[in-house]
Each structure stands twice: as C-alpha cells, then as structure tokens.
Amino acid sequence: MSPQHSAYLWLAQRVTALVLAACVIVHLITMIIAVQGGLTAGEILARTQGSIAWLLFYSVFVVAIVVHAPIGLRNIAREHLRWAKGADIAAVLFGLLLLVLGFRAVWGVFS
C-alpha cells in the first residue's frame, strides 16, 4: 500500500473516532435519561419509530463504525498476525458484515 493510501486510512480512522465519540456520548446520555425517566426498552423503541432524526443519527453512527473498526482490525492483522493481502480482504468483508448488521439494527429502531 502506498504511503498516500496509509495517510488516508489514518485520517479516516481519526475523523471517524471523533464522530464515534460524539455519537456514543449522545447515545449514552439519551439512554440514561430515558431509563431514569422510567422507560423500558420497548417504550424507547416505540418513541423512535418513524423518527427521521434518529434514523439519520444512528445511520451516521453505523457508517462511522463501518469505516473505523475495519481499519483498526486491518492494522492489527497486518502488524501482529503478519497478514499482507489477507488483512485487506478480511477488513473489507468485516466492514460489509458491520454494514449489513448495523443498518438492520437502524431499521429496527426506525420501523
């Protein structure tokens, strides 16, 4: 991989880390407030159904995860397992799995 590609991956992981930090904070604060207010998981989901705002929020969350996590796992596989091309393929496949499962969960929150 060229140094330019490595720099893009480094930047993508740092930017998505910032997005993930913000999403985790919003998610945790929202869940804490909801649970302290006495809402059950079912009641929380009932309130999110049909909400475009929550659909967009959790979609951004999933996209950030789909970019961030495979890059980190790719680096671990290359550095510690000494994988070369296999690490790239595994990272892409893992990212696709996260994409499918993540958007399945987002759709569950929305619909």
Automatic annotation (TrEMBL):
<dbReference type="GO" id="GO:0016020">
    <property type="term" value="C:membrane"/>
</dbReference>
<feature type="transmembrane region" description="Helical">
    <location>
        <begin position="89"/>
        <end position="110"/>
    </location>
</feature>
<dbReference type="GO" id="GO:0046872">
    <property type="term" value="F:metal ion binding"/>
</dbReference>
<feature type="transmembrane region" description="Helical">
    <location>
        <begin position="55"/>
        <end position="77"/>
    </location>
</feature>
<dbReference type="InterPro" id="IPR000701">
    <property type="entry name" value="SuccDH_FuR_B_TM-su"/>
</dbReference>
<dbReference type="Pfam" id="PF01127">
    <property type="entry name" value="Sdh_cyt"/>
</dbReference>
<comment type="function">
    <text>Membrane-anchoring subunit of succinate dehydrogenase (SDH).</text>
</comment>
<keyword id="KW-1133">Transmembrane helix</keyword>
<keyword id="KW-0812">Transmembrane</keyword>
<protein>
    <submittedName>
        <fullName>Succinate dehydrogenase</fullName>
    </submittedName>
</protein>
<feature type="transmembrane region" description="Helical">
    <location>
        <begin position="15"/>
        <end position="35"/>
    </location>
</feature>
<keyword id="KW-0479">Metal-binding</keyword>
<keyword id="KW-0408">Iron</keyword>
<dbReference type="InterPro" id="IPR034804">
    <property type="entry name" value="SQR/QFR_C/D"/>
</dbReference>
<keyword id="KW-0349">Heme</keyword>
<keyword id="KW-0472">Membrane</keyword>
